[in-house]
Amino acid sequence: MSVKKIPLRQCIGCGEMKSKKEMIRVLKTAEDEIILDATGRKNGRGAYLCPSMECLKMARKKKGLDRSFRMTVPEEIYDQLEKEMENLGKQ
Predict the structure, then answer these.
(1) Is residue 20 in a domain?
(2) Residue 84: which of 47, 43, 51 has the closest Cα?
(3) What is the pLDDT of residues 34-91, one digit of tens each?
(4) Alpha helices, DSSP H only, in the chain?
(5) Residue 40: which of 27, 55, 59 has the closest Cα?
(6) pTM, full prediction
(7) Which of 16, 21, 30, 55 is in the most buried spot, having the most CB atoms within 10 Å?
(8) Is 3 part of any domain?
(9) Residue 19 sits in which domain range?
(10) DSSP annotation of 11
(11) pLDDT tops 70 at residue 27
Protein backbone atom coordinates (compact mmCIF):
# COMPACT_ATOMS: atom_id res chain seq x y z
CA MET A 1 0.00 0.00 0.00
CA SER A 2 1.20 3.48 -0.82
CA VAL A 3 0.89 6.40 1.54
CA LYS A 4 -0.95 9.37 0.04
CA LYS A 5 1.11 12.56 0.13
CA ILE A 6 -0.59 15.54 1.79
CA PRO A 7 0.20 18.85 0.04
CA LEU A 8 1.62 21.44 2.44
CA ARG A 9 1.48 25.21 2.00
CA GLN A 10 3.16 28.04 3.92
CA CYS A 11 1.07 30.79 5.49
CA ILE A 12 2.13 34.26 4.28
CA GLY A 13 1.27 35.64 7.73
CA CYS A 14 2.87 33.38 10.33
CA GLY A 15 5.09 31.30 8.01
CA GLU A 16 3.78 28.01 9.41
CA MET A 17 3.48 24.98 7.10
CA LYS A 18 0.03 23.35 7.15
CA SER A 19 -1.98 21.09 4.90
CA LYS A 20 -3.63 22.77 1.94
CA LYS A 21 -7.14 21.96 3.22
CA GLU A 22 -6.57 23.84 6.50
CA MET A 23 -5.61 27.07 4.70
CA ILE A 24 -7.53 29.79 2.86
CA ARG A 25 -6.31 30.67 -0.63
CA VAL A 26 -5.97 34.30 -1.68
CA LEU A 27 -6.02 34.57 -5.44
CA LYS A 28 -4.72 37.08 -8.00
CA THR A 29 -6.64 36.70 -11.26
CA ALA A 30 -5.40 37.52 -14.74
CA GLU A 31 -7.18 40.89 -14.44
CA ASP A 32 -5.09 41.71 -11.30
CA GLU A 33 -8.17 41.29 -9.09
CA ILE A 34 -7.44 39.90 -5.61
CA ILE A 35 -10.12 37.66 -4.06
CA LEU A 36 -10.54 34.84 -1.54
CA ASP A 37 -10.82 31.44 -3.19
CA ALA A 38 -12.82 29.19 -0.86
CA THR A 39 -12.71 26.22 -3.27
CA GLY A 40 -8.95 26.44 -3.91
CA ARG A 41 -9.48 25.58 -7.57
CA LYS A 42 -9.88 28.90 -9.43
CA ASN A 43 -7.32 29.95 -12.03
CA GLY A 44 -4.64 32.42 -11.01
CA ARG A 45 -1.67 32.88 -8.72
CA GLY A 46 -2.43 31.83 -5.16
CA ALA A 47 -1.10 32.61 -1.72
CA TYR A 48 -2.22 30.84 1.43
CA LEU A 49 -3.33 32.15 4.84
CA CYS A 50 -4.32 30.44 8.07
CA PRO A 51 -8.04 31.03 8.74
CA SER A 52 -7.33 33.53 11.54
CA MET A 53 -7.44 37.31 11.68
CA GLU A 54 -4.00 37.37 13.38
CA CYS A 55 -2.36 35.82 10.31
CA LEU A 56 -4.09 38.30 8.01
CA LYS A 57 -2.86 41.18 10.18
CA MET A 58 0.69 39.78 10.16
CA ALA A 59 0.53 39.37 6.36
CA ARG A 60 -0.57 42.99 6.10
CA LYS A 61 2.28 44.15 8.35
CA LYS A 62 4.94 42.04 6.59
CA LYS A 63 3.59 42.84 3.08
CA GLY A 64 3.15 39.09 2.43
CA LEU A 65 0.67 39.54 -0.43
CA ASP A 66 2.95 42.10 -2.08
CA ARG A 67 5.76 39.55 -2.15
CA SER A 68 3.58 36.63 -3.27
CA PHE A 69 1.90 38.50 -6.10
CA ARG A 70 4.95 40.61 -7.04
CA MET A 71 2.89 43.82 -6.98
CA THR A 72 1.82 46.50 -4.52
CA VAL A 73 -1.47 45.50 -2.90
CA PRO A 74 -3.63 48.51 -1.88
CA GLU A 75 -4.90 48.81 1.71
CA GLU A 76 -8.51 48.56 0.46
CA ILE A 77 -7.83 44.98 -0.64
CA TYR A 78 -6.67 44.05 2.87
CA ASP A 79 -9.84 45.64 4.30
CA GLN A 80 -11.97 43.67 1.83
CA LEU A 81 -10.16 40.42 2.70
CA GLU A 82 -10.76 41.13 6.40
CA LYS A 83 -14.52 41.44 5.79
CA GLU A 84 -14.60 38.27 3.69
CA MET A 85 -12.61 36.40 6.38
CA GLU A 86 -15.15 37.49 9.02
CA ASN A 87 -17.98 36.21 6.79
CA LEU A 88 -16.24 32.84 6.42
CA GLY A 89 -15.90 32.62 10.20
CA LYS A 90 -19.64 33.15 10.68
CA GLN A 91 -20.65 30.35 8.29
Answers:
(1) yes
(2) 51
(3) 888 878 888 999 999 988 889 989 999 999 999 999 988 888 888 888 888 888 766 6
(4) 53-62, 64-69, 75-90
(5) 27
(6) 0.84
(7) 55
(8) no
(9) 8-90
(10) B
(11) yes
